[in-house]
Specification:
heterodimer, A: 125 residues, mainly beta, 7-stranded mixed sheet, 4-stranded antiparallel sheet, 13 strands, B: 106 residues
Chain lengths: 125, 106
């Protein structure tokens, strides 16, 4: 069974870089097409951060695209998120996700069928 | 960017009730629409993908319908664990989520 687990510091100072890692177990990271990140600010809804395709193609939310970078390391079965110049608005629970490739009704879709438990990150001095 | 608007934002219901939540997209997204349930303090769980396909292991009381810009999640026979927040998500152009619908016990 596929399992995802986020790790990283729970407290980051304003203007610094938030760095998180998602460790994948139960399958090889190379076997899935996409890996991604979603965040949720306190008391708010879900916000897509971005994702990385197995080929290395990247997609980011346009609202943070100038500050974010996602990468993957097949040797450690992990993928990572870096968000620089953070402010209090970046305080959130960050989830890593696996979009599963499914062909149905003549189309290919990528619903998020696996989620990590989430890691709470607070931006504060 | 594609905007998703859910309605209602919150609703109250009782165990055993039938409820429907709608999600409207700002442009045509075909059937690239998924639904998630998020229980308090937990990660979201996939319920429905491609607008109407029920994810493996999800109870049959959950169903989805729609295409284009208008979609509906229906829960028939609410159970205690269904009192949670529900989100729609589109993946036609990048990814975005609706603002959520909070389902509370009446």
């Amino acid at each position: 069974q596929l399992q995802l687990q986020e790790s990283g510091p729970g407290l980051v100072k304003p203007s610094e870089t938030l760095s998180l890692t998602c460790t994948v177990s139960g399958d090889s990271i190379s076997r899935s097409f996409y890996w991604g990140w979603v965040r949720q600010s306190p008391g708010k809804g879900l916000e897509w951060v971005g994702d990385i395709y197995y080929s290395g193609t990247l997609r980011y939310n346009s609202s943070i695209s100038s500050r974010v970078a996602i990468s993957m390391d097949t040797s450690t079965n992990q993928f990572s998120l870096k968000l620089n110049s953070v402010t209090a608005a970046d305080t959130a629970v960050y989830y890593c996700v696996r979009p599963r490739r499914i062909t149905i009704f003549g189309v290919v879709v990528f619903p998020y069928d696996s989620w990590g438990p989430g890691i709470r990150v607070t931006v504060s001095s | 960017d594609i905007q998703l608007t859910q309605s209602p934002s919150s609703l109250s219901a009782s165990v055993g009730d039938r409820v429907a939540i709608t999600c409207r997209a700002s442009q045509n997204i075909n059937i690239y629409l998924n639904w998630y349930r998020q229980r308090s303090g937990k990660a979201p769980e996939l319920l429905i993908y491609a607008a109407s396909a029920v994810h493996s292991g999800v109870p049959s009381r959950f169903s989805g319908s729609g295409s284009g810009t208008d979609f509906t999640l229906t829960i028939t026979g609410l159970q205690p664990e269904d009192f949670a927040t529900y989100y729609c998500q589109q993946s036609d152009r990048d990814v975005s989520f609706g603002q959520g619908t909070r389902l509370e016990i009446k």
